[in-house]
Amino acid sequence: MLPLSLLRSVGALKYASAFGITALFVVIIYAIGRGFNFGTSNNLTPAETTDFVSFSVGTSLLFFALNNQFNTIEIYSELTDRTPMRYTKMIFTTMLIISVLYVVMGLSELMEFGANVTGNVLKSYDGSSPLAAVMIIAVMCKVTFSFPLLIFPTRDAILHLFGNEDLKAANQKLYYGATVVIAGGSFAIGIVAPTVTTLFGIIGSLSVGTFAFILPSLYFWRFSILSLMTEGIAEDTWVSKVHIAVNVLNFVIGCFIIVAGTAGALIEL
């Protein structure tokens, strides 16, 4: 985990990422196989819940699963022949594939375990089974090889705070020191955290609520139509009003995600 995090470019992780994706497909194939062999379609019956905690944590986990915008800048900067349109198509295709895999995995788990399905897939299987052991090892490999993708943007942000504009040429001691501190801190939090579901719920609500909802709304407020209207540059049209209404709603949703998701995850402690 740490050696991979010491690399200076996302492109250097291509082989590790390929191995991680392979491990992910091992998990999905195992879950699908068990779902068809031991599951029943009766478990797919929708269940209503009024449990605010479960709803909040589940929503936060969903947002966390699709939370990848922190890598977009670095990935885009390393693309060859990059254009906004090409990158948009790549992101759309990637998110579509990921969403399909999540749905297939979730339905397979639901078919087998029904209402007893857990937020952590590892808790659902008997580790003494050889196939289950392979699946658990595959999950560990996937998490390990994905970890540097979280380290990179965190380290970049810290180095920027220390005035390093060219991160690839940053001082080695500062670069490696920041990496070790972040990786060590993450490991310590992982040891102390009671459950991965709670941890992901908190991270998902804080990061997604902030980066996907609140900050875009604030950027719009500062740099887009509303700012131009305030300065008398843009016309007061229905299009402008719709943009304003949507961004206000977006801001409110972001605040709700942070409060509800974090509160729900903490209540589960």
UniProtKB/TrEMBL annotation:
Keywords: Membrane, Transmembrane, Transmembrane helix. Residues 2-266 form the Amino acid transporter transmembrane domain. Pfam families: Aa_trans (PF01490). The keyword Acyltransferase does not apply. It is a multi-pass membrane protein. The chain crosses the membrane at residues 12-32, 91-111, 131-153, 174-193, 199-221, 242-267. GO terms for molecular function: L-amino acid transmembrane transporter activity. InterPro entries: AA_transpt_TM. The keyword Transmembrane helix applies. It is found in: Membrane. One of its GO terms (cellular component) is membrane. This is Amino acid transporter, putative.
